[in-house]
Design a protein that fits this description.
By secondary structure, the protein is an all-alpha fold. Helix content is 45%, strand content 0%. Helix 1 packs antiparallel against helix 3 and helix 4 crosses helix 7.
Length: 174
Amino acid sequence: MKPIIRCTGLLAVVLAGGCGTRINDALLAALESGTRSAGDVFLADLYTDLPNLFTFPPAIELPPLLPPDTGGTGDTNGDSGGSGTDQNQPPAENLAGDPASGSAFFMMNSCSACHCEDASGGCLADAPSLLDVNVETLRDFLLGDAMHPGGKFADLTEQGLADLKAYLEELAAG
C-alpha cells in the first residue's frame, strides 16, 4: 500500500508543478506553507524503511581454539600445583607436541609482542628468551604461581603445553 501512496504523492507533486512551474518551486511552496508535501512524506517513509532494506547475515560463532578443560575448576590450589589442567591427562613431558598448534597458541595470545616472533626475548624490556625453557617453567609461568605479565591461561591443557614446547624447540633448532 505504501508504494502506491508514495507514487501517487510524487505524481501529485509533479502535476502540481505543471504549467511552467518547476518541481523545486512546488516543493518550496509546500514547505513555506507549513504543510507536509508528498515529497516530505516520501522522504520520511524512505528514511523510516531504510533499515528494513538492508539485512545482514547473523554472526557466526567460532569454536574455541583450545579444547575445553575437562578436569578440575582450574583454580590454583596447592594440591594441583596451580596447573588447572585435567588430572587424568599425562604430564606435558610425556606427550608428543604439535608445533603447528603451539605456533597457533603463540600467535593467538600475542606472545611475540614481548618475546619476539622468534621467541628470542627482549622485544619488551625484561622479556626472557623462550628458546631454552623447559615445560615445568612454562607451566609455572602460564598456569602456576610465577608472575607472568601476560596473565594466566586457565584453559591451557597439558597437551597445549606440549604443543607450545614443541613449537619453541622447532624455533630453537632452526
